[in-house]
Amino acid sequence: MPTTIPEVEALIKQYDSELKAIEDAFRELVASEDPAKGVFHASEIHENRQQKNIAEVNRQFAVNRRNRLRMEAEPF
User: Fold this and answer.
1) What is the value of pTM for the model shown?
2) What are the structural domain ranges in the chain?
């Protein structure tokens, strides 16, 4: 885990980019499904949602880390 605020903010931006890519992939999967032809992507969509959840949790850890570093730098 990064130890400076700029490093943590860069990590947060990385997670934001990752979340956007995951969401774009989700939209592509849903759009490419065709129930009439029997084309479904249930397992891929499920895996995509798991990846999104992991990225969101990791991003939140980074946000919490940044907040802790700010608080240590400037206590009440």
Assistant:
1) 0.88
2) 5-31+40-73
